[in-house]
Design goal:
The protein has 384 residues and is an alpha+beta fold. It contains eleven helices and ten strands. The strands form two sheets. Strands 1, 2, 3, 4, 5, 6 and 7 form a seven-stranded mixed β-sheet that branches. Strands 9-8-10 form a three-stranded antiparallel β-sheet. Helix 1 packs across helix 6, helix 6 packs across helix 7 and helix 10 crosses helix 11.
Length: 384
C-alpha cells in the first residue's frame, strides 16, 4: 500500500491519465456544430405559422449534458440531446396529453421529420440516421411554484409532473465552484421570453472544464461500460446529481471521484439501514424524483447499488494500490483508456526529446521542473 508522498505522486499520475480519458470522451467540434444546426431547425419547425402553437409564445432551451457541459461520446449507438420547449402559459390552462400529442403530430406530419418522429413517455424523439437523436420535452409554466418551475406531460400518469431544468443547471454550476447556495427562486431564473431560442452553450475544451464536470463524464462512461449488457443502467441525471451533491471542492480529479463515491456509498448504507431505497431528488425542486423508476423496478435499484459499490471499491484500490493501474482503468472506462495512454506517451516522448523529463527518487518519470535527476535526450546512440 502506498503512503505519504507516494499517494500524492500516484494521484498526480492518475489525474493526468484521467484528463486524457476525458479528452477522448468529448464531442468533436463537427458533432457539436451538427447538434446546434439540428436544434435550430427543430426550433424553426415548432415556431412555424402553421403549427398549433403559432399563437403561443414559447422558448426552446437545452437541458441535460449539452447545457451542463458533460456530454460523452457513446460507445455504440446514437448520442441523445435533450431540449425543452416551454410554452408561456400556465399548465392549469392546458391538457398535458393534448399538448404532447399535438407536438408529436407536428413532427409526424412534417415532410422532413415524418419518418423520424417517435412518441415517448414525456417527449417527442427525433431519430436521425447518424449519431444523434433529439428529445423535445413540451412544458408549461408552473406559476404556483414560481421562478423557473415547469410542468411536463407524463403518459403513464396521464397528467402533469414537475420539473425545473433551468434552476438545476444553476445549482450544478454553483456546485462546480463548490458554492453552497439556497434553493434558487425568483425573477432571476425566469426565461427571456423576448427570444424563442436559447443558444446551446459553446463547446468547451477539456482544460476549461471543472473537476466536477470531468467526474460526471467519467461516471457516465463507467455506466456505459458496466451496464452494457443490462436493461437498467442508471440515467445520467441521477449520476450527475449524486456527483454534484457529493463534490466538496477537491482539486484532484482522482481524489474527487474517490471521495464522491465514498459519500454515495454512505448514503446507500444509510438508506439500507432505514429499510428503504436511496432517493435522488431534484435539489432545487424536490417534488421531482429523478430516481422514481426505482419505485417500480427493484432490480434496477439493486443493480445500481451493486455497481456503485463495486466502482467505489475498485477505484480505491487503484488510488492507494501499487503497480500499473492501466488494466483496471480499462475495465472501468473501456477502450478509451488505451487512446489516452497513447496520447500521454507521445506527449512524454515529445517533452523528453526537448530535454524536459527527469526522474524522481521514487523512479517515476516526470517533467524536469519537479524531478531530482534530469533524463538525457534519446539520441539512439546511448549518449549525448
Amino acid at each position: 500500500m502506498l503512503i505519504g508522498d507516494q499517494v500524492t505522486e500516484r494521484a498526480a499520475g492518475l489525474d493526468s491519465l484521467l484528463f486524457e480519458v476525458c479528452e477522448s470522451l468529448q464531442l468533436t467540434p463537427t458533432q457539436h456544430q451538427k447538434a446546434v444546426q439540428r436544434y435550430t431547425a427543430i426550433a424553426r419547425t415548432l415556431d412555424g405559422p402553421d403549427t398549433p402553437f403559432a399563437h403561443i409564445q414559447s422558448n426552446l432551451y437545452p437541458q441535460g449534458s449539452m447545457k451542463l457541459g458533460t456530454t460523452v461520446k457513446p460507445i455504440d449507438g446514437p448520442h441523445d440531446l435533450d431540449f425543452v420547449c416551454e410554452f408561456n402559459i400556465s399548465h392549469l390552462n392546458a391538457d398535458p396529453m393534448r399538448l404532447l400529442n399535438s407536438m408529436f403530430a407536428v413532427f409526424k406530419g412534417h415532410g422532413v421529420y415524418g419518418g423520424m418522429a417517435e412518441l415517448k413517455k414525456r417527449c417527442v424523439r427525433i431519430v436521425y440516421k447518424d449519431e444523434f437523436y433529439l428529445d423535445i420535452l413540451p412544458a408549461c409554466r408552473d406559476l404556483g411554484n414560481g421562478g423557473a418551475c415547469i410542468q411536463v406531460p407524463d403518459c403513464e400518469l396521464q397528467n402533469w409532473t414537475p420539473s425545473n431544468p433551468i434552476a438545476f443547471a444553476i445549482w450544478f454550476e454553483n456546485a462546480t465552484r463548490h458554492i453552497l447556495v439556497q434553493r434558487p427562486t425568483g425573477r432571476a431564473l425566469v426565461m427571456d421570453h423576448a427570444a424563442s431560442i436559447q443558444p446551446i452553450p459553446k463547446i468547451e475544451a477539456t482544460e476549461d472544464k471543472t473537476v466536477l464536470q470531468l467526474v460526471v463524464q467519467l461516471l457516465k462512461r463507467w455506466r456505459d461500460i458496466h451496464y452494457a449488457d443490462s436493461s437498467f443502467p442508471p440515467i445520467s441525471v441521477v449520476l450527475t446529481t449524486l456527483a454534484a451533491g457529493n463534490y466538496q471542492g477537491e482539486a484532484s480529479l482522482s481524489e474527487a471521484l474517490l471521495l464522491a463515491l465514498d459519500r454515495i456509498v454512505r448514503r446507500l448504507d444509510a438508506a439500507r439501514a432505514a429499510g428503504r431505497r436511496m432517493q435522488v431528488l431534484n435539489p432545487v425542486h424536490q417534488e421531482e424524483d429523478f430516481s422514481e423508476r426505482w419505485n417500480s423496478n427493484l432490480r434496477a435499484y439493486s443493480e445500481f447499488d451493486f455497481g456503485i459499490r463495486h466502482l467505489a471499491s475498485a477505484w480505491r484500490d487503484v488510488c492507494i494500490g501499487q503497480g500499473n493501474p492501466n488494466r483496471e482503468l480499462e475495465r472501468l472506462f473501456g477502450e478509451v483508456v488505451n487512446t489516452a495512454l497513447i496520447k500521454e506517451a507521445r506527449k512524454l516522448e515529445d517533452i523528453r526529446e526537448k530535454g524536459g523529463l527527469g526522474i524522481r527518487g521514487s523512479g517515476r518519470i516526470v517533467p524536469v521542473a519537479s524531478a531530482l535527476t534530469p533524463m538525457l535526450r534519446n539520441t539512439n546512440h546511448g549518449e549525448e
